[in-house]
Design brief:
With 463 residues, the chain is of the alpha+beta class. The chain is 39% helix and 18% strand. It binds a DNA duplex (9 and 7 nucleotides) through helix 10, strand 11 and strand 13.
Length: 463
DNA sequence: TGGGGTTAT
DNA sequence: ATAACCC
């Protein structure tokens, strides 16, 4: 998260901005184009994503309370169900008790969710290529350049007539002469266009938050909930971060860190702001300490990092008990079969395979172990040629990894198996400008070999 | 607690 | 290979 910023330096790195802004520069017009010190970031967050996808697949579900089930959990539900008391990650038992009319669909196969998720990311990439995915249902987009371009096109009379789209956090008045306000307003208009495009083209609704960095954009996107958007003006950023009831709600401060902070007597955002930096650095290490203390002031200079195609593909299955090698082998074969389909569609080849498992333990540990190894070159070749049997050699490798973790001569009790392909590379390493590059259809006719989309409408490969 | 993902160490 | 984070 500390990669150098390529486009813009962050305003919030200035020590003066550790405190709420009382005045705002009004003379940004004097700055050379492109040197803006304030970014415009949007966070787009789909409403109950899996449930929306299910309602699109089966419109009869639309006006019913709907939950998406994985094993014994309702992982998400639509707003009809929420009105009746169903919450995310509620057990199926509790949910049915609260809401006997609840309709449940199984959501353990993520294929359709994943596909729709990438359609959303691709749609957003058409606005600006700098899109970072967070899970399947959230995206960050850096709108800074787009906003600058729109402002350059505007006449001065149009500039003073700009209006906000959606809510302004805290109902803060907009100052049309404040260039930061104006940029964020243009950001709010782009956000509205994004949400409209998502609805018109994909049938999906969602929220958006517009602010000067990722942390604030994410926090503000959830202020008005479903299918609404909110922009945060800089003067209200302290109000927004202090609206959090606990530091655990701060994105970037997870379970472990919040427990350690609590042991130090830190529970509110203000506690973290005012805590001794020196002691915090001793306790958590300089990197985490400095990062989260900046977060507590609403400062986040991490760039929107384009996600691009996925770094890994994995499939997992959890269960009450698996205690024999043949049983494990069968489950591994299932996971592998699905994965090979995905890897095949992607076009890139995995150079590493990993097996992960969770062993039963009465203690409440999230006890996962993994072993990984290279995918043998002859298997990669078969993958490239297609259609040869690649299952058999891969299952053999995975079972070796399995026996490396599990002594099969002793009793064992597994509750999860997962197979992951990573270290993905385009098989063809031809570089641009070389003969190989132009002789390779996958490189010379698409932007990136196998890059998830089948946007083939513009290219005609008469094979 | 599910079925995914990412980056840092 | 694990541990932390995110959804």
């Amino acid at each position: 998260m500390t990669k150098p910023e390529r486009h813009h330096s962050a305003a919030e790195t200035s020590p003066a901005t550790l405190h709420p802004r009382t005045s705002v520069a009004v003379h940004d017009e004097l700055e050379p184009a492109g040197s803006s010190s304030c970014r415009v970031i949007v966070h787009v967050d789909l409403d109950c994503f899996y449930a929306q996808v299910e309602m699109i697949s089966n419109p009869e579900l639309k006006d019913k309370p709907l939950g998406v089930q994985q094993k014994y959990l309702v992982v998400t539900c639509n707003y009809e169900a929420r009105k009746l008391g169903v919450k995310k990650l509620m057990s199926v038992r509790d949910a049915k008790e609260k809401c006997p009319q609840l309709v449940l669909v199984n959501g353990e196969d993520l294929t359709r969710y994943r596909e729709m998720s990438y359609k959303v990311t691709e749609l957003l990439e058409e606005f600006s290529p700098v899109v970072e995915r967070l899970g399947f249902d959230e995206n960050f987009v850096d709108l800074t350049e787009m906003v600058e371009k729109r402002l350059e096109q505007l006449q001065s009379d149009e500039l003073s007539a700009l209006t906000v789209s959606g809510h302004v956090y805290n109902n803060q008045p907009v100052n049309p002469r404040d260039t930061l306000h104006v940029r964020l307003l243009v950001g709010s208009q782009i956000a509205a266009e994004m949400r409209e495009a998502m609805y018109q083209q994909l049938g999906l609704t969602g929220c958006a938050g517009v602010a000067s960095n990722k942390l604030l954009a994410k926090l503000v996107s959830g202020v008005f909930k479903p299918n609404q958007q909110t922009v945060l003006l800089p003067e209200s950023s302290q109000d927004l971060i202090h609206s959090l009831n606990h530091i655990k709600e701060m994105p970037g401060i997870g379970y472990k860190t919040s427990k350690r902070l609590e042991a130090l007597g830190i529970s509110s955002v203000r506690d973290l702001q005012t805590f001794s930096s020196k002691i915090l650095e001793k306790e958590l290490g300089i990197s985490v300490a400095q990062r989260i203390q900046k977060l507590s002031f609403g400062e986040d200079d991490s760039p929107v990092t384009p996600s691009g195609p996925p770094q890994s593909f994995s499939e997992e299955d959890s269960f009450k008990k698996c205690s024999s090698e043949v049983e494990a082998k069968t489950k591994i074969e299932e996971l592998l079969a699905s994965l090979l389909n995905r890897v095949c569609q992607d076009g890139r080849k995995p150079y590493t395979v990993r097996l992960t498992l969770r062993q039963y333990s009465s203690g409440k540990q999230c006890n996962r172990e993994s072993r990984q190894c290279p995918v043998p070159p002859h298997v990669i070749q078969k993958l490239a040629a297609g259609n040869y049997d690649v299952m058999t050699p891969m299952v053999d490798i995975l079972m070796k990894l399995f026996r490396n973790m599990v002594n099969v001569k002793m009793p064992f009790h597994l509750t999860l198996l997962s197979v992951c392909f990573c270290n993905l590379k385009s098989l063809n390493t031809a570089k641009k400008g070389t003969i190989d590059y132009y002789l390779t259809p996958s490189l010379s006719t698409t932007s990136h070999a196998g890059k998830r989309s089948f946007k083939m409408k513009d290219c005609h490969m008469e094979d």
